[in-house]
Task: inverse folding
């Protein structure tokens, strides 16, 4: 395959008789060297993994009339506050009859915030899990799976999470909490500016 | 004693097959590669379970390092030239053709527009030096970052915004960037993260 026909090289003056047969084998070692050198270069300079992204849609700044605003039902609302040194505070509902909601402290571990959210969103979690199993069994196409999943997540009884971050929180905390939303199949959540009331609630905890 | 004569075998190996393999791999790597883009600062992105891949074209990257410096870059060389012209008009700075050409080769930058000409005059190796990573001003008094985003949208209407920030970046800095976007009515963007395993068996 790699031999090159150089037989005619031997007989320069047309005298084919007695022409020496020159070996037609070429030494490929330098070429292999070169090949591997280039491979090494390309391997080291490439990024095989494209970075992942998280898509996020923020509310627009346009003023919405008071009566058109979506009011979050207090019983469905969960407020998550990102504090300093990776602490998370959460409470359910809002201030009612002059009684402050009970604020709990937790962290980003699997036993912390996630467990609470799963417990709150249990019905949807079970349904989505069933759907995922069905997807594996019956080979539902991805689009249909996503569509049905978002239908399930728009459940009228599912909690609505309000995320508020204090100035001491880091970007990682924000991503982590958005991640928890994805893990716990929470369909409706919003990132909102923190209010003085929330700051006070945390301060009162003395942590 | 009679010596057993072993026939001399040639030690030369046929390299052809190896050569084939090497070049096959080389072709593969050349075709699949997209080069790592140089970034002016090291950024450790947080991880998430999200598996959406970032598109390759029409992307505007906003890089935020842990001290809060903001860097900016768009793809497409012609688009970059148009963008710099627009920025120059807005801040009444005239960029020469050479400067525009230089600018079109830079994937990320982080200098105030007033220092852009000095920055472009530098050698490409000097641009990566730490002292040249100043960051684009994005406070409320002098929000050049806002104008970069606005003009990038005008230059390329299909552009998508990707924010890449360090894990330890403080939230107020991110909030400032996000608020700037909201002011411009840019409400959809991507946050770049690295991959993390999705926890299985949550409830069963």
Result:
């Amino acid at each position: 395959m790699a031999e090159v026909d150089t037989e005619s090289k031997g007989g320069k003056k047309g005298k084919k008789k007695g022409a020496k047969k020159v070996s037609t084998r070429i030494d490929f070692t330098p070429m292999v060297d070169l090949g591997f050198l280039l491979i090494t270069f390309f391997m080291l300079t490439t990024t095989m993994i494209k970075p992942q992204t998280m898509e996020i849609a923020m509310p627009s700044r346009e003023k919405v009339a008071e009566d058109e605003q979506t009011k979050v039902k207090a019983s469905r609302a969960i407020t998550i506050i990102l504090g300093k040194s990776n602490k998370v505070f959460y409470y359910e509902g809002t201030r009612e009859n002059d009684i402050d909601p009970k604020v709990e402290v937790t962290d980003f571990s699997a036993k912390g915030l996630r467990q609470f959210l799963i417990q709150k969103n249990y019905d949807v979690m079970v349904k989505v899990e069933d759907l995922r199993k069905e997807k594996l069994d019956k080979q539902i196409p991805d689009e249909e799976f996503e569509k049905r999943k978002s239908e399930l997540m728009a459940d009228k009884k599912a909690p609505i999470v309000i995320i508020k971050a204090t100035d001491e929180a880091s970007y990682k905390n924000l991503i982590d909490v958005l991640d928890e939303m994805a893990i716990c199949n929470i369909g409706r959540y919003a990132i909102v500016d923190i209010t003085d009331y929330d700051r006070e609630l945390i301060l009162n905890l003395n942590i | 004693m009679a010596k057993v004569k072993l026939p001399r075998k040639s030690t030369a190996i046929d390299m052809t097959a190896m050569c084939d393999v090497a070049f096959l791999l080389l072709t593969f790597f050349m075709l699949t590669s997209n080069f790592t883009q140089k970034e002016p600062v090291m950024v450790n992105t947080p991880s998430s379970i999200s598996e959406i891949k970032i598109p390759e074209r029409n992307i505007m990257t906003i890089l935020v390092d842990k001290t809060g410096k903001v860097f900016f870059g768009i793809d497409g060389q012609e688009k970059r030239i148009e963008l710099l012209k627009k920025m120059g008009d807005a801040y009444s700075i005239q960029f020469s053709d050479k400067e525009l050409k230089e600018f079109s080769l830079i994937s990320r930058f982080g200098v105030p527009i007033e220092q852009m000409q000095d920055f472009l005059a530098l050698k490409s190796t000097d641009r990566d030096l730490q002292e040249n990573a100043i960051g684009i001003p994005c406070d409320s008094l002098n929000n050049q970052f806002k104008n970069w985003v606005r003009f990038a949208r005008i230059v390329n209407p299909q552009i998508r915004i990707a924010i890449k920030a360090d894990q330890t970046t403080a939230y107020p800095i991110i909030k400032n960037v996000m608020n700037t976007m909201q002011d411009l009515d840019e409400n959809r963007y991507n946050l770049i993260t690295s991959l993390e395993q999705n926890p299985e068996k949550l409830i069963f």
About this structure: Chain A touches chain B through 56 residues (CB under 8 Å). Chain A is about 35% helix and 15% strand. The first strand of chain A starts at residue 52 and ends at 57.
